[in-house]
Structures are given as C-alpha cells and as structure tokens.
C-alpha cells in the first residue's frame, strides 16, 4: 500500500460504514478522482466534506454509490468553472468602465472587508395574512404545503443533489436523534417536575460592550494598518517572554544576513487575488522590526507546518540571499492562562444551583445546569414559519433549561424571501404601512416564541447574539454591537450581547461569536505532510485559541468563494470586518472554558487545549432541519486541601460537562 493509500485511509476511515479501512473498489474510485483532477488526498477529503454538507447529510457514509456521486459532483464543478472562465474571456472588453455587479453594488470586490448596508426593498402589493406557528402547533399540527417558491439551489445546483426538494419540517427524518456525544459517562438527569422559582444563572460580561458601539463605514486605512502592525509587536513580546529570548535574538526576515534570527510577522499570500500555497507564502513584518516589508518564505524542510493568512507566527531561520527567508523552526506561541476562581466563589455558584434561597444551605448535590445552544438560520429557504425556532423553544420549555443561547442570523439577509421582499405580511402591519419594518417582522414572527417560552418557564435566561447577516441590525460590521431591544417587544428574560462576546455563566467563562470562522479557516489554511494536528475539526478551533482571537484570518475569504445562498445572485454578505476595531475580537485575559463557534461544517463537540469547543451546527439548513447542542454541566468540586489553601482553582469544565449534538 503506497503513501497516498495510507493517507486516504487515515482521512476517510471515519466516513466508512465500518469505521475502518476503505473498501478496494471505493479506494480505486478515490484514486481515479485524484489522477483525473491532480489533487492530493487532503484536498479530496475537503471536497468530500463539502459534498456532504451540500447534500445535508453530516453522517453520509463512503461507499461505491456515494463516491461515484462525489466524482460526478467534482466533474460538474470543474465544467461549471470552465464555462464561467470561457464566458468571462469572451465578454472581456478593453478599457471598459467598472459596472455594478448583481444587486450588491460591489464594483471593486471590496465588500469582504468593508461594512455595507443590507439590501432593502419590500413589495408594496397587498399581502395575505401570515401566521407564525406556536410551540403547540409545531408539536401537534401537520405542516402546510410549502409555497410555490423556487430557491436558487433548485436553479443553480449541479450534481447528484440538484433534484432534492426541501423537506417539510414536520416530515423531517430522525428528529431528536443524537448525532454526537462528548463525555457520555456523565448521565443526563430527568428534568425537574416544575421550573425553579429563581434563575440559577448569574451573568457577568467579560467584554466591554460599550466599545462595540463604534461608528461603521468610517474605517481609515492608517488606523487599520496600525491595528494590524501593533498585533505583530504584541505577539513578539509574548514570544520573547515565553521562550526567554534576548532582544538580539530577533531581527527582520527581510534583511540579508548569515546569522540565524527569530522573525515575528503575519502570514500572507504574495498576490491579493491568489490562494495561499507553499510557493506563494510570504511573511509580512511590522514597521518597527522590518519596515512593513514582505519576504517570501522557504518552508521546503518543514513537514508539520500549519499556516493561514493573518496568522501571527515566530519563525527561526536565515536570509542568506536577501531574496527569501529559509525557515528552520516554528516557535509555538504561548496560550492564555486557564480560567480559575477562588474556593469561596465556587461555593457561591454551587449554592446558586440549588435554585432558591430556601434550599441554599442544603448539603445535597444540586442538579446540573441544563444549557441549550442553537444557531441561525432559524427557518428554511422556502418559508418564514420559523418552525425550528419554535421547536428549540419547546425543548427548552419541556426540559426546564436554565439557559437558551441563540446566535443569529434571526432575520437572515441571505434568506431568499427576505432578500427579495416577496413575502406576505399580516393584516395588522398592512393597516399602517409605515410600521412594515424588519423590526415589526421580528416582533411578529420571532418574539412570540420567546414570550411563550418565558410564560411557561419564567426563570429561564435567554441569550441572543447578533450576526452581520441580521436584517434587523443597523450595525452591519464585525465586531458587532448588540441590536436594540426596544422595538422587538422581548421579555425581560432575554439578554442581548455583542458579537463576539466573552461572558461568564456563573463560574463558566464562555467565548462566543456568530461568524463562521471555521469554514473560512478550512478554506484558506495550508498544511504540511504530517501536520501537528491531523484532525481537521480540532485543528481549526486551535487556531483561535493560539491566536487569542475570534477571527484571526486576514483578509477574509472572498464572498464569491463562500457557500452559496438561496438569493438571486447566490453570494453571501461575507465577513464584514472593520479592521480598525479588530482588537475588540480578541480573547481577554484568560482562555475561555467554553468556545461556541457555529459553522456550516459538521457539528461537533471537542476538547482543545483544555477548552470545550462546540459547533452546534445550524438549526435550519436551506432545505432541511439542522442540529443544536445540549449541555449538562455538573457543579465544580474541590478537595479539602484546595479549599483550605484558598488558591485559585481551575474550572476544568471539559471534565464535568456532557455535550449532546441533537437533530432538531
């Protein structure tokens, strides 16, 4: 068995029905795809993952039928790209003036890093009455027939999944099925017979939300460059302290010298339009250490490298020729310290878990925390019924969850009906046309789910985290301030925080961002033959932890290369970074106990560098129902010695939290 066969078996073994080696006929087909398209095993595995996501089957098994469908999908994608290239070449005109592209006015393709405003425009023709389902309706009533609406996916998809029609939410298969479990040795207790009289959660914001209320559309290139430059210098100080280096050990990678130095800089591509690869990788220096110059990197001798654009790295090597920097060693960056609390503080949180002032002095172990996490979109492409949202609220009510955490988008600007404005409004909105705003739509379609949940379970805490794709939010840039609650009629139990946000739930330090950074990192990273972290879904969140940032990638992926939406042009809004305020996206002071990073990649729960990392998946996919995460968190414990010493005690959430990834 050659090296490629071994690598294919390592990559695809988890996708086989047996969980072991790939069958011979399937292996032959995979080798055929690699030969036909000249792609390595790792890239082929990425294409398999993308195909699984496109088909809406996170647990798709690799067999002879699915591998042949994959082969056809790869071929169709190649032919589609060739047709686009040919059409572009034939239509190219010399000296043509820039034109608006589609409906987004992105003439120069700069919207990936420049905040823009959501597309507007709602139909003014008379609307029929539109009703949103209640929790009981989702449970008991059959789903109505979906409207006669053709999404972009029906028109543009190619390959084996092109004929798949949207599935009615009430007819969804495998509802309630557990997809993945972390720490399954921890039991899930029966829900209480009644809700607790008081909230068992104390919320403490570890991020300054006032700083998120900056003015958008006002980014200055000088400020942005200073932010990027300062980050390199800050990391150099961290590297110096961690590895105990002298000032003389550092130098500029761009300066010719036969002496070995340590160079700190930012990974970048030598072309603004190109994709990072071992031949195009350059190191961008800071103005203080290298006058901001870029120097090509020679990484031929490195086997286990893991790089992506925007990554701050410390490299040991020499620049003997003055033309490139030959890397001999990659210095690991130091990690933030783990979150810890005093014994007295942990005791206070344990007493709070007993649920009422009368029970706080009880010596028995309190019930574990019940936390539910879901991520938007919250409705399928062909309707605005928000049935998945009502279903997750129903789960929170039935299990008397302590916390329901929901990340946007809530009213998704990339939803075909929202983007086009072609949907029916309730009669009460039509009576006053001036009230037909996105805030009114939110209040009519989404707020009732929270109102009903809090009426059933008054002591629940509901956390909402916005998204740059939210049509209701005036702050269309990341980092992003909380949206204003005054127009939405939300219950008092609903708390709205920023994006990203570091917040403490009792002692648990949680970092959360609604940006799909994992997909973008997977799209842009390059890895050596034997990467230090061979598991993709563990490697990607580790980048965030090592770089101490919720969005360490720079520049972000071009919008045209992100997953297609159901809108007319199929192009999503993108990352919407405001570079001048990227410092607000940093992790503060300590490593979070829990990191919530919703993504279109397969949902998972993993422990990475003592951090519990959760991708709950999307609650609703474009044509099918999605997944959410359910946490059971047992109280922190300590030894008598730790209690008497009074020193800070690490929370070790990853040891006492069970995570279930569940189909909605």
From TrEMBL:
Tagged with keyword Glycoprotein: no
DNA polymerase alpha/delta/epsilon subunit B domain segment(s): 371-606
GO cellular component: alpha DNA polymerase:primase complex
Subcellular location: Nucleus
InterPro entries: DNA_pol_a/d/e_bsu, DNA_pol_alpha_bsu, OB_DPOA2
Function description: Accessory subunit of the DNA polymerase alpha complex (also known as the alpha DNA polymerase-primase complex) which plays an essential role in the initiation of DNA synthesis.
Protein name: DNA polymerase alpha subunit B
Organism: Sclerotinia nivalis
Highest classification ranks of the organism: Eukaryota, Fungi, Dikarya, Ascomycota, Pezizomycotina
